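Team,

Forwarding the record for the chain on the shared tracking sheet. I've put the sequence and predicted structure together so nobody has to dig through attachments.
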Amino acid sequence: VAPMLDNPDLQNVPISQMPDFVRPLMRKEAFMAVTKDLPPGTTRQIFESQGILSLLVLPIFIQGKFRGFVGFDDCTQERRWSPDELGLLRSLSAKLGIFIKKE
């Protein structure tokens, strides 16, 4: 799968265009989805354009403020993230927030 970090079509997408993606993150919740199950709209379109079949995104909060997110996707199969995977990745995102705060 080709990386999409430098794809200009995916840079600076306004948050207002992806409320279904942002809403859980702002509530300190994970965003988990199988792309084909998402409602039609920008969020689904962006993930489909990258060949993402399923994903898990976790927010990073620093001193109570949303500062970003870390995401994991699967471009080879549709998957449901297990509770153990979710727990491990939540721990990772929390540790990233702590690390960033110390910088």
